[in-house]
Amino acid sequence: MSDGAGSDTAAQAGSSARLHQLFEGRRLTPTQRRIAHCLVRQAADVPFLSSVELAHLAGVSQPSVTRFAVALGFDGYPALRRHLREVAPAGTETEEESANPYQQAVQAEIDNLRQLASLLADPAPVERAGRLLAASRPLPVLGLRASAAQARGFAYFTAKVHPDVRLLDEGGSLLADRIDAARQAGASALLCFALPRHPREVLDALDHARDAGLTVVTIADGTFAPVAAHSDLLLPAAVGTGLVFDTVSAPMLLGQVLLEAMCDALPDAQAHLEEFDARAAARGLFVE
Predict the structure, then answer these.
(1) Read out DSSP for 39-103?
(2) In terms of CB atoms within 10 Å, which of 10, 55, 141, 185 comes out highest?
(3) What's the rounded Cα separation, in Å, for the pair 126 and 114?
(4) What pTM was estimated for this model as a whole?
(5) Of 93, 97, 107, nearest in space to 247 by CA
(6) 110-166 per-position pLDDT tens digit
């Protein structure tokens, strides 16, 4: 990729990050979240569309676009469009037009990672989340259906530095019981991975956790995800939608960044890792 194309991609990432900040803390309806998602995914094109064209692109009604603009604090869609033009990158033509669908999917993931890097320019939210999770004994980690793999991977690595990690990767009537058991054992926070599609029982579980007194930290696909209103601290990372099934490189990397922040907040993390390495060597666990 040429330097010019790289600069355009970086500009797009910065624009998407600023859009996420625009939505942060807003209680958006499902229709409004759909419009927000459209804005982020099409950040370069949307600022130059009419409200009718944006409605068609997002699959909603034109009045919904107007209500969305008002919900964000603007007088109407024209005011929102002026704002979007200010944050949109100029000149975003790249080599993607000639790329095949597989290359486009990979490029979209690269763009998602660039967007994540832009969001992490302010490390305070991740550092705060790391401290909250490090202090929780035990630490419940929730992820259902499509999010179960991310929760399981995070729990596997976290268990090497945290004394009591409890993986919650199965739904059903026992899920609330397991959250209650963690709370009664001393848990103060819960980490949730919430990626599309979002199971209804995840929202119920997060509400139950908060009612029980747990602070909910969620890694989700955006600040406009359905779980946003059910979380105390939401860390966004976009998913790729160019293939039949979503790709989740950015959420996975954000999980590892969060784990790094937890290690910084755990004074015994390095000692636990060295102890594990010594045990692994004694047992011959890994091939050298």
Answers:
(1) HHHTTTTGGGS-HHHHHHHHTS-HHHHHHHHHHTT-SSHHHHHHHHHHHSPS----GGGGS-HHH
(2) 141
(3) 17
(4) 0.72
(5) 107
(6) 998 999 999 999 999 999 999 999 999 999 999 999 999 999 999 999 999 999 999
